Each structure stands twice: as structure tokens, then as C-alpha cells.
Amino acid sequence: MIHGMQPQPLPLEGITVIAVEQAVAAPFATRQLADLGARVVKVERIDGGDFARGYDTAAGGLASHFVWCNRGKESVAVDLKDPRGLDVVRRLVADADVFVQNLAQGAAARLGLDAVTLCAEHPRLIAVDISGYGPSGPYAGKRAYDMLVQCEAGLVSVTGTPEQPVKAGIPAADIAAAMYAFSGVLAALVRRGTTGRGGPVEVSMLDALAEWMGHPLHHAMHGGTPPERTGLAHAVIVPYDVYSTVDGGRVLLSVQNDREWRRLAQQVLGHAELADDPEFATNPARVANRERVDTLVGKALGTLGADEAVARLEAAGIACARLRDVREVAEHPQLAARNRWREVGSPVGPLRALLPPITLPGGEEARMGAVPRLGEHTGVVLRALGMTDAEVAELWRDGVVR
After folding, report:
1. CA within 20 to 30 Å of 48's CA: 158, 193, 267, 343, which one?
2. HEC profile for 304-325?
3. Can you tell me whether residue 215 is helix, strand or coil?
4. pLDDT band, residue 235 (cuts 50/70/90)
5. Phi, psi dihedrals of residue 374, rounded to the nearest 5°
6. Could you give the C-alpha distances from 97 to 22, 120, 129, 134, 185, in angstroms and in order?
7. Gap between the Cα atoms of 326 and 337, Å rounded
8. Mean pLDDT of all residues belonging to the chain
9. Neighbouring residues of 223: CB distance < 8 A, sequence distance ≥ 6
10. In contact, 263 and 317? CB cutoff 8 Å
11. Are 212 and 172 spatial neighbours (Cβ–Cβ below 8 Å)?
């Protein structure tokens, strides 16, 4: 809290979101909304729920993807193929501010849950359709999983080594779509505050990831050739790569301009004469002599421990980083120093989770609610719609809800 001020409420307090969602793209988008105070009701299949629940059991018996993307939500398990189940969702949508879905292409429209249909029925509703390739065009009906879209968007072609293209180690296409859906909802809420009307929001994974391909895409379109795959090295800046240290560590450094090169040569490499050598003094010259530069830097850092290498680079004003594995990130000193870790509840007990990156000083801390078990809130949500215990029991008995 800022001194002397009462904390402000979370910005999405009072906003209700209904999500018919699965996998990563839509769940990650709606988790951002939940963290910022929205009530998010997650509608799941009765036969196992969101299939991301079954990806693995790494998080204390729960799936790591599901834990990451679904905290702070209410889980309602409903059979949308049953008219009574579909009616439950329609009644939920009628009182909602936002609806989000990422069902297979065409499935939402067949159920009458597509954005255009719902917004025509509810003018204040903001309805989001997340798809793989968009609602039209030759790819509209194609199955779209993260790695497939990474390939179609060209990300795989610029990631990896000269010999081997590789996918990103995180679901980049899903995350890109999720964050555009999240920001699209926020923008639509601002517009609704001005006009009083909601409206459809469309996001495709291909559109989102193609936008993220901006540098290599523009390089290829306007420069004639795409950047080469260079592993951890930068395609057009030298030195900008990872180097091994004597203790088995790996340190990445980046020289962004010729002033930094002079400092590197004088203070780290111990070769002051290279500072103004025409074969190294400019970035184009260093790119042309990449192997010689890498040999010089590798030899210098190879005599130092990782901590000493980082200290010497920082003293010289050279940007650098340790190449950390995932376990090391979980214990990162910067995250610990800034108190970024919290515990969230789950069906298997407390689990560590990072505070979301959006920090609002002077406001309440992000709401990091529990990860729900399948159908945990079905009864409560149905009764809040005005259903009697007998009506809820009937739906349960008939397998319409769980």
C-alpha cells in the first residue's frame, strides 16, 4: 500500500466471466482475469473435465499445465450435449460480463455459444472466440495444437541450431493467443464503459504468434533472407552467445555496440589492442569474424568460474546472465528478494506459484485463488441460478452435471 492511501480494489472486482475452455490458450487468458479480481466460472466436461487435467501428474498428483492456468476459478461440470446442460450455461451467460471459449472450430456455433450469436442476444456481453487459425480461410477447420501452430507461424524455422530446428520449450502459440485474448477483454471492457455495449472479440493462435515473429518476418520480407538459426547466439550481433566457465557453468553475454566491445576487449579479454582493430571494432566486422570472436571470448571466460565471470562482465558494464535450468529459476535470488512466491490451495494441498507479472502498487495484491477439483462448485453455482435442491439433484442423477 502507498503510504497514507487506502488500498484500491482489484481492477476487475465485480466482473463475472464464464469460460467454456480447455488446454492452455483460453484457460491462461481467464486466469489473468481471475488474478485481477474477476469471478471466473470454468465450465468443464463431465467425463474428466478440461483434458489438460490429464496431461501429467507432476504437481503433487495434479497436471502442471492445469495448476498453472486454472487457479482462482469455480469449476462447474456440465454436459453441453444435453439441452438442460446447455440451458445452464445460457443462464450463466445471461448474467455475465465476459464469455470466453476455445472449443474446436465450429463447435461453439453449433451450440449457439459463438461470440456473434451471444453478443446479439446480450448487447453488454463481451464474448471471446479463441481459435487456431481464425473463423475463415482454408485453415479454419484444421486442428491447431501449440506445436503445429509454432511450425505454421515459422517460429520453429528460426529456433534451434543451423542443423536442427526446434520448437520453443514453452507453449508459445497458446500463450500468445491467451495474452491477446486477455488484453482484448480489457480493451472491450474500457469501450463498454464508454458506449455501454460489449461485442465479439476474435483471437487466433496463428495471428498472435505471427505478430510475435515480427523481427524475423520483417527481416525476411524487407531484407530478402530470414535470419539463420544460431542456437543461443544472436543472428546479427557478435558477441552475443553463451560461453562455458571453468566450473561447468554457462554465462551468456551481449555486446550491443562498439563502445561495449572496447570495454570487453580491454577489461575482460585482456586484449586492449582489439578495441580498435578493424577486424573487430565494428559489429559487421565481428559478425564476419564470428568464430574468431567466440574463440577469444570463450578462452577468456573459460579460465573463470561462473560467479567470477559475471562479476568481471558487470564491472565492465557488459550485459550478461547465467544460463539457469528450471530448478534454478525456482530458487532465483531475484524472485526471492522481491517476494514473488505465494502458496495457492489445491485438491492436493498448498502449491507454490508466482505472483502474476502485473503489479498495481497501492492496490490489493493479485487474488491467487485455489486450483479447483472437477465440479467443485457445480452445486453452489446452480443454486445461485435459482435452482432448487430437487432440480439440482435431478440433473446430478441424470448425469447432466457433476
Report:
1. 343
2. CCHHHHHHHHHHCCCEEEECCC
3. helix
4. confident
5. -60, 125
6. 20, 14, 15, 23, 10
7. 18
8. 96
9. none
10. yes
11. yes
Interatomic CA distance for residues 271 and 273, integer angstroms: 5
| Beta-carbon count within 10 A of 204 CB | 25
Residue (of 3, 4, 6) closest to 364 by Cα position: 6
CA distance 29 to 174: 9
Full strand arrangement of the beta sheet holding 319-322: 240-244, 250-254, 319-322
Amino acid at 67: V
Q: From CA 152, how far away is CA 149, in angstroms rounded? A: 5
Query: Rounded to an integer, what distance in angstroms lies between the CA atom of residue 89 and that of residue 268?
Result: 64
| Per-residue pLDDT tens digits for 26-69 | 999 999 999 999 999 999 999 999 999 999 999 999 999 999 99
Residue with cell 578493424: 278
**Is-contact 250 240, C-beta < 8 A?**
no
Q: How many CB atoms lie within 10 A of CB 44?
A: 25
Catalytic residue list = 174
Nearest in space to 108 (alpha carbons), one of 18, 237, 240, 173: 18
d(CA 41, CA 170): 26
What one-character-per-residue DSSP string does 26-92 give? HHHHHHHHHHTT-EEEEEE-SSSSSGGGGS--TBTTB-HHHHHH-TTEEEEEB-TTSHHHHHHHHHH
Integer Cα distance of 387 and 399 in angstroms:
16
Quick count: other Cβ atoms within 10 Å of Cβ 217?
16
Contact 323, 251 (CB under 8 A): yes
